[in-house]
Structures are given as C-alpha cells and as structure tokens.
Amino acid sequence: MYSEQVMDHFMNPRNVGEIENPDGVGEVGNARCGDIMKVFMKIENDIIVDVKFKTFGCGAAIATSSMSTELIKGKTVDEALRVTNKKVTEALGGLPPVKLHCSVLAEEAIKAAIEDYKNKQAEKQTADSI
Amino acid sequence: MYSEQVMDHFMNPRNVGEIENPDGVGEVGNARCGDIMKVFMKIENDIIVDVKFKTFGCGAAIATSSMSTELIKGKTVDEALRVTNKKVTEALGGLPPVKLHCSVLAEEAIKAAIEDYKNKQAEKQTADSI
Amino acid sequence: MGHSVYLDHASTTYTKPEVLKEMLPYFTDLYGNPSSVHRYGREARKALDQARERTAAALNADPNEIYFTGSGTEADNWAVKGTALANSKKGNHIITSSIEHHAVLYTCKYLERNGFEVTYLPVDEYGLVDPEQVRNAITDKTILVSVMAANNEIGTIQPIGEIGAIAREKGILFHTDAVQAVGSIPIDVKEMNIDLLSLSAHKFYGPKGAGALYMRKGVKSEQIMHGGAQERNRRAGTENLPAIVGLGKAIELAVTDIPQRNARLEALRNRLIDGILSTVENTRLNGHPIKRLAGNVNFSFEFIEGEALLLSLDIKGIAGSSGSACTSGSLDPSHVLLAIGLSHEIAHGSLRLTLGDRNTEEDIDYVLEVLPEVVQRLREMSPLFNQNKGGRTYV
Amino acid sequence: MGHSVYLDHASTTYTKPEVLKEMLPYFTDLYGNPSSVHRYGREARKALDQARERTAAALNADPNEIYFTGSGTEADNWAVKGTALANSKKGNHIITSSIEHHAVLYTCKYLERNGFEVTYLPVDEYGLVDPEQVRNAITDKTILVSVMAANNEIGTIQPIGEIGAIAREKGILFHTDAVQAVGSIPIDVKEMNIDLLSLSAHKFYGPKGAGALYMRKGVKSEQIMHGGAQERNRRAGTENLPAIVGLGKAIELAVTDIPQRNARLEALRNRLIDGILSTVENTRLNGHPIKRLAGNVNFSFEFIEGEALLLSLDIKGIAGSSGSACTSGSLDPSHVLLAIGLSHEIAHGSLRLTLGDRNTEEDIDYVLEVLPEVVQRLREMSPLFNQNKGGRTYV
Ligand SMILES: Cc1ncc(COP(=O)(O)O)c(C=O)c1O
Ligand SMILES: Cc1ncc(COP(=O)(O)O)c(C=O)c1O
C-alpha cells in the first residue's frame, strides 16, 4: 500500500516535536475528521531555520508531515510556499489515491504557519511604526 | 440420481418389443413432451399372459416401462389396474422428484391398453350378440 | 470398465494443476483480506491486483475496468440489471437474442416484469444473429444490446465485432456474455467496441466461484451487490481470493496459443462430427458448420430422447450433455434448439459433446465405436422408430 | 523479525488444513457440474448434498432450507431484498439495527431508494438492541426484522432468540446475519424462531467464496440471481463446489465443542483486555463486557489514529484492524462505534484484535509487550496529547 519512503518517514519521522516561542504556528484539520497537523517554525531573515510538527492522523498524514517539514527546512519563506502537496507526494514515492488528501493537510499547515509568521511580522512592524 | 434398480431396468429393460395381434394396445404421451409409451398386451381369460412395450423417453421412462410391465405380467386385468405409479416407483427403489411424472406415464399406458382390451371385448360381445 | 472420456467441458472444466498450484497458498498462508492494512492484507491485495492485470491483458482492457464477481451468472445479472437500472431515465428498451444463456434471458424477463421492454432477436438455422436486425431493432428508447459471443449449446460464434460497431455508432451500450468464448475466440474489447463483457473461470480451466465483469471506463451502472467497499465500491463481499488468483492464471493460459489449441480441438471435433454423420442415420448437426467453437459438437438423433442417450453413454464411460427437457426437470427442451427451428421432438433427442485440452484421438474413436450402438439400442426401444422403414414421422 | 501474530480473524480466517483437504479433489478429479447427468455430475451432486446436510445439521434446519451463495454479502442481500420484494404487497416497512454490517445496511438504503421504509434501531452503549424497541417499532406495514446475531466490530451478541420470538408472535419474518456468530454461539433456527439466516464460510476456517442462506420452508422470497435452475431454482449459477464442500466441513468443525473452544479463546481474550486496561491509560473497551464474542477485543485509544496504530503494530508483526475512517478511505469512522456513542475523534483511534484457534498465550503476551510502546510513541507525536497533563480535551 505505502511506499518504502512513506514507511520510513512514518516509522522515523523527522522534526517531530514543538518549538518554544515559535515565530509561526499553524494548525489545520480537526479530530472529527481524523487528522490534525500542527507546525511550529523558527524563522530568521526569512529563512526557516527550524521546523517541528505534531500530527494526529494516519500513516500517510504522519509521513507527509515529516517529509514536508524536511523539504522546507533551511528554505526561504517564499521557497517553502512553493512546496506543494504534489512535490511532497513525489518525494515520498507516491501515495495511494485515497490518501492524497493527507498531503494537502501538510501543505495547508505549512501555509498556515507562514501566514501566522507574516501576521506576527506585520503586527510587529505596526507596533514598531507606532 | 437413479437407484440401482432403475439403472438395471434402464440398461436391461424387460418386455421390450411389440406383440403381433395384441388384445389390447395403449399409447400415451407425445413426442413434443419428450415421452411416449406404447404397451401391447396378450390377455387370456382376463389374465395378462404377455405384455410388451416401446418407449421414447428418458431413463426413468424406460425403467418404469420395464418395471410396470414386469409387475402386471401374469396378473388379472383387475390386479393390473391396481398397480399404481406409486407401486412401480417403490419397486424401482424410488425416483428423483422431477421424474415422478414418468411413473404416471406407465400407469396411464397400462390403463389405456386395458381400456382398449375392454372396448374390443365389448365390441366382440356386441358383434357376437347381434 | 476402464474408459472415462469427459466431453462436457462447456458445462465445466477441471482446474488445471498449474492453476490450482497458484491458488493453494491463498487458502492457508496468504489468507489475508485484501481490504486489511496489515501485511496479510497487503499480500492479498497484491495477488488481487495481479489477477486483475492478467484479466485485463487477456481482453485488452484496463485493470480498473475489471470487476471480479462470484460467477459468470453474477456478471451477466450485473451487466444487464446494472446498466438497465442506471440508464432507465434514458430509455427502457433492451435488445438481446433468443439464444442467450438463462443468466441473461431470465434477467431480461425479470426486467420485463419491472417496466422494461425487451426485444429477443431471432436467429437463423445455424444460430446466428443478424447484425442488421440489431440495427433495425434499435429505437430511441434502447439503452442496451446484449448478445453472447458464443453459444454454450450449439457453439455458434456471433459477429460481436459487427454488433459492437453498430451499438457504438448509435451510442448504445453493448454487453456480450463471453463465458463460452474466452480462451476459444480472441477477444479485444476495444477493437470489438464492447462496453461490458462477462466471463467465468471454470469454463477455461480455472476454478468455480470466480467470474468477472469487464466494464468500460465511464459506463453508467448500478451496483447489485450491496455492502462493503470492495471492487472500488461497486461489488461488495470479501473477495474470493484463491479463486480470483486462479482466474488470473487460467485466463493467462487460456488466451495463449489460441490458434494452436483450436487447431488441435478442431481436428478432433471434425473427426467426431464426420464420424457420427457417416455412421448414424437420421441425425442432424446443430449449430454453424464453420462459425462454431473449436470444441463444440451438437447433434440431434431422431426417435430417441437425450437423457436416455446420456445415461447410456455414461455407463460406457462417456460424459456428455443434452438439451433435453428431461435432464433439467423442465418441461420444454432447450430454448436454443427450438430457436434454430428444431421441433420439440427432435430437440429432445439432442446430444452435446464438448472437447477439452486433455481429450485425445482415442477418446473420439471410442465415442465413435460406442455411440452408434447406443443410438441403435434406444431406437429399437422407441415406438417412433420402425426398423424397416427407418423411422416414422412424428405425431 | 520473527513475530507473526494474526489477530484479525473477524476479517477472515485461514482455511483449516482438514477443510482444504476435503476440497482438493473437487478441483482436479471430481470436477463435474452438479447439474450434469453423468457420473462426474452425480459425484458432484453427492458432495453438494452432503455439504447441505452438514450445514443444516449445524443450524438445526432441514437440508432443503439451505441455499448456497457466493458470500455472506450475497446471503444478506438476498435475505433482505428477496423478502422485501416478495412481500411488498403486505407492507413496505423493515426494522433493522444501526450497527448491522454494510451488507444489510446498504441493502436497506437501496430499498429506501425504492419505496421501502426502514427503521434503524439505536443500540445502547454496549451495542445491544433492545427487543422491546423491536416490538414497539412494528407497524402493520412491517414485513421484516433483520438484526445480526453478533457484531463484527465490537463483538456484541444480540438477544436474537427474544427478537425472534417477538417477530414470530407478530407474524413478521425475522432475518439474522450470523456471519460472525456461526461457530461462536450455538444457533438453533427453530428454537430461536429464525426465518432467514446468513453465514459465510471464511469466517469459520472455511474458504472464501461460499456463503449460505437458511430460509425456513414457506418463506416467501424473490430470487436475486437469475439464470440456471441451481439451488432448487432459487439461486442461479454453477455451484462453487470445492468451496461449498469446504463450507460443509468447516461448519461441522465449527459447531463442535463450542464451549471448549470458547473457554480457551475467552481466557486469552480476557488476558488481553485486562493487560491493555492495566498498561495503557486513556483507553476504552468497546462492546459488551460479557455478551461478546469469545475472540473479540475492541479498544479506543485516545489522542491517536487507528491506521497509524495498525501500521505500527504491523511492523512489529501484529495484524489487527480498526474502525478508523483512514483504513477504508471513507470519511467517517465506523458507524458501529458512532452508534454506541463514541465521538468521531475517539472512534478514529480504535483497534480491533480478533483471536483465533491458532493464537497462544505467547501471542497475547507479545501484544501486551508491544502495544503500550506503540501507543505511547504515537501519542508523543500527537498534538492532542500533553505528556504532563496526559492529554487535552478534543476540540
Ligand atoms: C454462455 C454462458 N453464460 C453464462 C453462464 C453462467 O456461468 P456460471 O454458471 O459460471 O455462473 C454459462 C455457464 O453456465 C454460459 O455457458
Ligand atoms: C456481520 C457480517 N455480515 C456480513 C459480512 C459479509 O461477508 P462476506 O464479506 O463474506 O461477503 C461480514 C464480513 O465481512 C460480517 O462480518
């Protein structure tokens, strides 16, 4: 069912955990639907210097969380926004069709975290400029 | 499907053939339905001294023809009329349910032959009495 | 008595040893349910996928156009009911032939009781459907044409390519019951414009209990087996994996070397046909002389009844079948034999001998030795037969 | 890694060697079609009759009340659709439970789309149907009550004897899906007033591809599989003889020594349940504590998702199943878990382990060694779980 890469990222997920005082946090999904992904980011000079996640969900959800955080680590925010669910899926050697929605979850969580970061930046600037 | 007795009477049917100048002949069934039985009788002093049959039909039809002619041979006409399809079937060790109608065919053929005999007797008597 | 000549392959075949061999692990070791997440399930899923690919390859279809069923009958029921119900808004008219297998015919009768109209096309004396009659029968209410690829009783092969082309041209679904055809006639669902096709493993040396329906992508059809999400949510029920694996292997073998196997079977078949025609009088070969399945022989013998003939042959170690009513407990002889114009009485005296891969010339010669005697013995018992005149006309 | 612990017997069982052994001759030697006149056919017919007798004996039914099908699903479809359609003049109302298998539930949904009305009775927190609610749901339009004998997910055993008595008293047909119950609960169709009963061989160490419907003499039902005259003209299709022979043997074994086998299974089951309860926090046993199948264990683990749990166990060589939506590709978790009152989020974290005759104490101990670690690992990854507080409430 799952590729070797998926199983590897499921069993040995990269970047699991939380970041204290993150610069951006995103949480998408809900428990009712069976998957939640929460992403924490440390961002310096627009570069994602650290990223961690916590995921409640199936094997595909955990593996895509792991892979997508790997793919954006060290990237600029703009580069990270271009990491689509398609790229994550490809990097995992594909996903069963019924599991493709899990890769969307990861994409959305990352976007939400970056959005959160940008909002915070905007707030800071507003605060600074006052 | 068929009992040993049925198979025996099918493979080695008793009384197959015709009788020249029979005292009674009965034919029932029709080719359209897949079975015809024709019975020939030689009757002396109300006793069936000889009986022969020809049958177009399935294994059960042939076996019941054989068995029923055996059962009436040497019997009086009245005794023969009491040989029901049930008795023939029993003597054959039973028949599959879908084949029970074959045993009726034999009973009817015998009745028809006896009827024919009686009609001929009646005609003779009428002829005699004229 | 040593003889044992099985000539009833159209009824069912043995499972070939190499087919059974592939099936066996799925009973005791790889027994998982293909829907399960765990390794047993994944092993099972892999086997299921492989069987689907093999089946698709045999028909030039796509694997996800193949749906496994429990039998050819289920595939036929599904093909006809499923498309009828799903397309009833478009129309309520179905065209089929009068010599279909009961799995199609009685499904059509069922639909007739439920508001559909069915045209049962006649066939000619050889059992052939005329494609032009299909065309002419089409109305703006027609939603399905179902004509079998080859007939199970008389072996006649239908011009399904031509019928498929007409149906496609008119935008009407075309189903073919290929239960007897698979392995005997090369089938290409694309080239032949087939939208739905039924098959059954035990007719081509696979196991009983597995059939398949090919359904072209995009065909609108209702489910008839409700429940679990198996077969991409279109046919519920835990897959009969050992049998499906067997189907996959068997169909792969069946479509390999069709010309060679047919050449061998046809030689045996023709030897049998010629032998019967030259040794038994008052007989009639049923079905088409050339457009017939390589293994099919079907004769009517006048003045005698088919079941009695079968029993007599059976005692001699020859297994055949008959369209006689008496073999089925029904009242009428085979609808196929009546449809090609035989009278009831002649139809009752029919014998079908269907050859298979294990049959030999010796088998044929043995039949040719036994059959004339057997027919003669029964004729001598028959009130319809007059030894001197060679028979009387039926009443 | 040496461990291989199969705990998914409710999904499907292996075929017992002694069952397979009885089946094997019917593939390659005794391969005749039971409808055939010749000796191959007669041998097949004899085997078919024997399987029918064994099945009847297992249920205290009459052999001619047993109809073989291709699966438990087909038996369920037939039972529900067949009686509904045949009795639609009497009424159009069906009563069932909300925790039936989809083979019954989706058949009911299909009937709802076709003019029938269906009452889906609720169950209590243990999954029990209340017989009094059955009684109260009966109207003068009610034609069928269908309540399963035991649930496939949570193992709850229903009071089918009581429900049967009520249905009989009211003159309404009673069907029970006993697919999970056969071999686990003694069944007597007469004593329990059962009119129709479905079973499936691969759930009791028989082969896949064979099911049966018990239909009491005199029950009015329509055919759903049209075609040949098999099964006394009520279910068409060449019989899957090897599998039917296997069903016969398997059911004979299954109903022998139920108390002894159950005692062994229950000891293992309780060891597993107690072990999980004492080593893993924030868990919930689903189903009835006592009125449950001897081999069924079903837990919900908070904060984690079932498929991830299954995968993790699978890697450790443990095969289980889950009511999580993610195992089936559907959107909602098991309707059964929702019906007993679990929230969606808890239902997603469910694990079913179903024991079989080959499982040992070592298997159980191994699971108890592995499971707590696995649960812990997943919880640590979960945003819903707070290591210190032991979890947060769901959003
Ligand atoms: C032409 C044809 N269609 C359908 C069937 C039904 O197949 P099965 O009996 O395997 O369900 C058969 C064989 O019996 C057949 O010969
Ligand atoms: C309670 C119940 N009913 C019906 C079925 C359907 O049986 P099958 O998959 O063998 O058709 C199952 C098993 O899947 C079941 O557990």
Give unreliable regions of chain C as ranges. none
CATH topology of chain A: Sufe protein. Chain: A
CATH class type of the largest domain in chain C: Alpha Beta
Q: Proportion of β residues of chain C?
A: 5-15%
Rounded mean pLDDT of chain C is 95
Tell me which CATH architecture of the largest domain in chain C applies here: 3-Layer(aba) Sandwich
Tally of DSSP helical segments of chain C? 14
Question: Which radius of gyration of chain C do the C-alpha atoms yield?
Answer: 22 Å
Q: Mean pLDDT of chain A, nearest integer?
A: 93
> Which pair of chains has the greatest number of interface residues, and how are they split between the two chains?
C-D, 72 and 73 residues
From the spread of the alpha carbons, the general shape of chain A counts as elongated
C-alpha-based Rg of chain A, rounded: 15 Å
Query: How many separate domains of chain C?
Result: 2
Structure summary:
In chain A, about 50% of the residues lie in helices and about 20% in strands.
What does this molecule look like?
The complex is a heterotetramer, with 2 copies of chain A (130 residues) and 2 copies of chain C (395 residues). Chain A is of the alpha+beta class. Chain A has a single domain (4-118), classed as Sufe protein. Chain: A, CATH 3.90.1010. Helix content of chain A is 49%, strand content 21%. Chain A contains 5 helices and 3 strands. In chain A, strands 1-2-3 form a 3-stranded antiparallel beta sheet. In chain A, a hairpin with a 4-residue loop joins strand 1 and strand 2. In chain A, helix 2 packs across helix 4 (85-91) and helix 2 packs across helix 5 (100-129). The longest helix of chain A has 30 residues, at 100-129. The relative contact order of chain A is 0.21. The mean pLDDT of chain A is 93. With 395 residues, chain C is of the alpha/beta class. Chain C folds into 2 domains: 17-254, Aspartate Aminotransferase, domain 2; 257-387, Aspartate Aminotransferase, domain 1 (Alpha-Beta Complex). Helices cover 40% and strands 13% of the residues of chain C. Chain C has 14 helices and 12 strands. Chain C has helices at residues 17-23, 25-28, 39-59, 72-86, 102-112, 131-137, 160-170, 230-233, 241-254, 258-279, 306-315, 335-339, 344-348, 361-381; strands spanning 5-6, 66-69, 93-97, 117-121, 142-146, 173-177, 196-200, 211-215, 283-285, 296-301, 318-319, 350-354. In chain C, the strands form 3 sheets. In chain C, strands 2-8-7-6-5-3-4 form a 7-stranded mixed beta sheet, with helices on both faces. A 3-stranded antiparallel beta sheet of chain C has the order 9-10-12. In chain C, strands 1-11 form a two-stranded parallel sheet. In chain C, helix 3 packs parallel to helix 9. Chain C starts with a strand and ends in a 14-residue tail after the last helix. At the C-D interface, helix 3, helix 4, helix 5, helix 9 and helix 11 of C face helix 3, helix 4, helix 5, helix 9 and helix 11 of D. The structure holds pyridoxal-5'-phosphate (2 copies). One pyridoxal-5'-phosphate is lined by residues 71-73, 76, 101, 103, 148, 152, 177, 179-180, 200, 202, 211 of chain C.
